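Pasting as-is:
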Amino acid sequence: MSLEFWGPDEYDRHAQTKYEAGELDSAVRILREGVAIYPEVAELRVSLGYTELAREEYAWARRAFEGALRFEPDHEDALVGMGESLIKLGERGRGFRAFDTVLELGFSTDADLMISIGRILLREGLFERSERFLRLAAAADPEGTEAPMDLGSVLQQLDRPQEASEWFSRAIERDPDNHDARALLGNLLYEQGDRRAALAQFRRIPPGALWDTLTIWQIVELVRACDAETAEAGISPYLLRLEELLAGMRPEDRLI
């Protein structure tokens, strides 16, 4: 079916639907057709760039972001995508400059953008640079929980456990049902050898909200070590959760 009657927003919307469904090839096809028909629409090129990033096609992604920036040199999302593409391609200096340009344009108070850059740098193991952007994100959104969680992870990687613990705790204070933050704090306490404090955090997470099998095994170990008398009853919900997560897995994968 011909798509020529679609406007730029419709191309973008249909591509987003495909992207969210995991149909990246279809999303790229739609966006490339949209760019061919509306070459001056930067948003289509930005969407194309991020879809190609998801497919790990970094050179193509950089090309898409470069195209967007030719039409809108100050497009903040294009600059973030360009920075990630460049870092993936080994051009770290240029990637860092793209991120710095976002700050120069006055977006340091945009918490979502700062978190996006911070996470890119975190994934690449660039922890000191990641900390800078995540602190800006935390300052921009004093009530948010995402920046404190990511900042805690960065500080943990930088071997600053006390600060990491404070940021994880801050996220929990803002949202006591933030199970991810509790799991991160529990793992940090476990690594530090504070078993009872770790178990106290883990126990406040419903077993059904646990997705990491290693964390579940840590909880089983902690229950057996700290509450030997009631251990078997205490670990039953966690063993059931393990079975749910491991259902359908091959025996060799279960062993690993």
